[in-house]
Here is the input.
Amino acid sequence: MRILQVISSFLVLLWVNACHPPGSGGPLAQEDKASIRTLEIPVFENTTEAVLTSEEAILRTTDAALQNLITKPSLATFAESFGELDRIQSELVRVWSRLYLIL
Here is the structure.
């Protein structure tokens, strides 16, 4: 079993090095490192009104962000478009998961 773990770790290392050769910034470029969020303990809503307020706020924020993404110039790259879509979805899921957990 241990040998399989060593082999799989080695294969992952080879794959990462193949995709990100030395000098290319590695798997996390400097600009990506700045965007990594630290672990935060969420503040849970403790009333029905607070849950509804959080739900309405994230829906408004998500809708506005999606509208902003749609109205961007068509020259946006694939990575920019899907990166922004991923960020929007991440925020929505973060709030939704917290609300789902307490319901």
